[in-house]
Specification:
Elements (H helix, E strand, L loop, with lengths): L4 E3 L5 E3 L3 E2 L7 H13 L3 E3 L7 H13 L9 E6 L6 H15 L6 E4 L8 H12 L6 E4 L3 H10 L6 E5 L7 H9 L3 E5 L11 H10 L3 H11 L3 E2 L6 H8 L8 H8 L18
Parallel strand pairs: 3-4, 4-5, 5-6, 6-7, 7-8, 8-9, 9-10
Antiparallel strand pairs: 1-2
Helix pairs in contact: 1-2, 2-3, 3-4, 7-8
GO molecular function: oxidoreductase activity, acting on the CH-OH group of donors, NAD or NADP as acceptor
Organism: Rossellomorea marisflavi
Protein name: Glyoxal reductase
Amino acid sequence: MGAKSITLNNGVQMPEIGYGVFRVEEGKDLEKAVETAIRIGYRSIDTAAIYQNEKSVGKGVQNAIDAGLVTREELFITSKVWNDGLSYDETIQAYNDTLERLGLEYLDLYLIHWPGQNKYMEPWKALEALYKEGRIKSIGVSNFQVSHLEHLLETAEVKPVINQIEFHPKLVQEEVRAFCEKHDIQVEAWSPLMNAELLNHETVNEIAESLGKSAAQVILRWDLQHGVVTIPKSMTESRIKENIDIYDFELTEEQVKTLDALDEHKRIGPDPDQFDFK
């Protein structure tokens, strides 16, 4: 079992399902969960400096490599810079610090975590330099709205490969997704299950029951059918396995539209137009 891959705008292959670790504390449980996810078939692992769990993610990755489950080259590791007013040099240092915590020589993807109030231009220049030096395989952004992307693209020498955004049936983000599609920027969903809130939704469960699938599988399948990379999080082995086991069914066009219609523009995270690291 494993995820299929998509091709980013720089030609790099990325699994369309990854393992997320947002709000998971550093420690042995996370190390084991990462190793378990890799054993089950995940090849993409997503973390961030602000999660304060990069060390455990790195140890879990290394344990999986040492156990012969995978090679480093087969994995796709993502982290993010918490760019609260960082200068060019501070961004370079932040990347070096992330590599040290993870115990890795390079990342497959490094993202600017939030746009803030125009706090992304200097960090982006630093990411471009690291990319051109071959120290990162791909660079991208997270939580960028259309206005942020337009501003960045005016001067960017390297186009972002990814925009990782909050995306789920209650927040479908049509404008952002349409802009990214037009500019060949892959959309990736964080918190696709809305912190498990959607798992008890009547409509989702009705569709799940009709298909003989779980609510989580229905939502993650909906992500893929929208062409969105997804990174669900779970610390339970059975659910980690369930979340990647979504290739033996498809939602009908009507079912996709039914889920689309749940959109309430409802966020569980901050509004990127307002959030400024405060």
